[in-house]
Amino acid sequence: MQKSLHIDPAKCTGCMQCEMACSYENYGVFNNSKSRIKVFEFHNTGRKVPYTCTQCDEAWCLHACPVEAIVIDAATGAKYVLEDVCVGCKVCTIACPFGTVNYVQDTGKVQKCDLCFGEPACAEACPTAAITYIDADWTGLERMRQWADKLDNQPQA
Amino acid sequence: MAWQRKILRVNLTKGTCVSEPLNMQWAQEYLGQRGLGTKYLVAETDPKVDPLSADNKLIFATGPLTGTMASTGGRFSVITKGPLTGAIACSNSGGYWGAELKMAGWDMVIFEGKSAKPVYLFIENDKVELRDAAHLWGKTVWVTEDTIKKAHQDPQIKVSSIGRAGESQVLYAAVVNDLHRAAGRSGVGAVMGSKNLKAIAVRGTKGVAGIANPKEFQKATMEAKKILAGNPVTGQGLPTYGTQVLMNVINESGAMPTRNHRDIQFEDARKISAEAMHEKRPTDGKANLVTNQACFGCTIACGRISKLDEKHFSVADKPQYWGASGGLEYEAAWALGSNTGVGDLEALTYVNFLCNEDGFDPISFGATVSAAMELYEMGVITDKQTGGVALKFGSAEALVKMTEMTAKGEGFGKELAQGSKRLCAKYGHPELSMTVKGQEFPAYDSRGIQGMGLAYATSNRGACHLRGYTVASEILGVPIKTDPLQTEGKAGLVKAFQDATAVFDSSGLCLFTSFAWTLNEVQPQLQAACEGDWSLDKLNLVGERIWNMERQYNNAAGFTHKDDNLPPRLLTEPAKTGPAKGLVNGLDKMLPEYYQMRGWSPEGVPTKETVQRLGL
């Protein structure tokens, strides 16, 4: 079964635990500027939104790469970057409609979410379940359950 | 090594920025943030220095856990000699700025001297420069932050700055970061203003590496987070209601200072409480509260984000205040509301916005307004001084007007800017100033919570709830329940809270974790992060050492045991209502025992043995 990251922005508090977990998992350092998931705070409305790669089936980044440095992980479906193949041309960063592939100055390569190959550190670190890692076919299940719960039918004996 | 081992020294007179190694021996003795920053101040300045002179220093210090995954690990402190009190000033803030400074590679920034013209400091990792701030002078915190981000074309920059209150040296001016988090108390913003330093803008992309024992650290911080999540206060009360969860609780306990402490219960507490913030307004069908918000790394998320009623008289013609921003915390709601007798939630929210926007402490400001209201009702202050404003208890219009005048430095606002001690002295009624060492009380009346009287009297930065929050024990039963109306046993309780708090404040963590954590939960996190021995015994010693270092500084600055006192109202006028009815604060029953437990002489001076034992 394939899983995907599911984000419920209404639950986000802006604590940045996900960003730290991401940078720590991938670089061994607490460094928000190296995180592959970013939390946006819209001050004027009070909204907070965590945002990262949704692992498109039609992966524009993958198709755009001239050296085939972005490949698919068979187990998770994640599109990930082969660092030793990437030449840092950044064409993928242009191709991605959502801005979730980005260049890293320190390494001269691009980076994107790779779902931590099945155990996303961001989801594990999120204290409010704003980020979860769930059945890719049923990301709407929780919302359906909430609406279903609003039916005021009474159980019949 | 959770420290970056590097401090930035900025000489504003010479315009120089120099990198220095952090004194690691001091780090082992004073941990970080409050303790370590104060150690630098004590070592480098004369305690008798004029707080607003070029000879005073201003220190921004992070802790070893700042910028890590430890829950609430985003704190920093601003340390200096305070202009409101003349004592040590050490104000703690959250938001994102502290973690950004740490991630730029710095443990601490020390400002010395005074710039000839307005400047701001720009830090981008190792690149550090002082930049002209002529175009920012006279601007609010909100405009300053926005202007700097736009000028550098980088929305990820974090800014800490002063507003017009800091520039004009309002004696309780704050340093505000991330728009609505503040190093709020004791006038640290006035010191920044006196140095012609408008802001510190930081972008840090180096991160925090080199945790001593990473696996243990992840395990320890995860365990500690579970405890926060499972605790009713940190897991439910604070995220849902914020610190405002206390409004009705403290009012019912009969410890809610009202109308300059004339009363200790407020009839309109319900109207300005957390519950009221959740309710839909009859005027527009929306709630005052929009959402809660966390500071960096915080898994509690007690912060309030509020939106005003656009039709409310205070903002009906001011659309710039119709967006969401930092809402009421308990202290602000009390000081601006109960203490002035104003039960108008929207007015208080607007006034709190202004305190953030122009950077001044709502506690000291609200308390100063309430003292002025009492003087006005006595006829000592008249319409002549107030410019025709009827400064009566309960008047939201008067409160709003006074706040706008103080923010802009106009009219009677200039007198309010001096704080209640100077204001009351000027008008011949020093006894009406509800202060200790010149700093106004926070939101707990010590007739209804006896231990807090001792905590206030002995607090090293003047009246303050964040130096020894025995409310936790006396009202909430954390970690053990004690009787708020009794003085017995409070000396030891206050000492224990004061010493433990010094450790929380020196580690990079938020004190609010202590609703769920004791040092037992902090210790494994520090031990895993920091090199060296960080046993419980050592932490207790470090806490006590910090407390005594601050005390020695104040003693050298000219304070004596006579300053460990409360205003006569709390010692002679019994509480009129509530559980504490008939009681005054029994400070005289607690203070001698406290000195003894501290190892101080009857004059409040640490004895030779104490100094030696603590390695001071």
Task: Reconstruct the topology from this structure.
The complex is a heterodimer of chains A (157) and B (616).
Chain A: E1 3-7, H1 17-27, E2 38-42, E3 47-51, H2 60-64, E4 70-72, E5 79-81, H3 91-95, E6 102-104, E7 109-111, H4 121-125, E8 131-135, H5 141-149
Chain B: E1 6-11, E2 16-21, H1 24-30, H2 33-44, E3 58-62, E4 76-81, E5 88-93, H3 97-103, E6 108-112, E7 119-124, E8 127-132, H4 141-151, E9 158-161, H5 164-167, E10 175-177, E11 181-183, H6 188-194, E12 197-203, H7 214-230, H8 232-241, H9 246-252, H10 274-278, E13 289-293, E14 303-306, E15 325-326, H11 330-336, H12 345-358, H13 362-377, H14 383-386, H15 396-408, H16 413-416, H17 419-426, E16 435-436, E17 439-440, H18 450-458, H19 471-474, H20 490-507, H21 519-529, H22 536-557, H23 568-572, H24 587-598, H25 608-613
Parallel strand pairs in B: 1-6, 7-12
Antiparallel strand pairs in B: 1-2, 3-4, 3-6, 4-5, 7-8, 9-10, 9-12, 10-11, 13-14, 14-15, 16-17
Helix pairs in contact in B: 1-2, 2-20, 2-22, 7-8, 7-21, 11-13, 12-15, 13-17, 18-20, 18-24, 20-22, 20-24
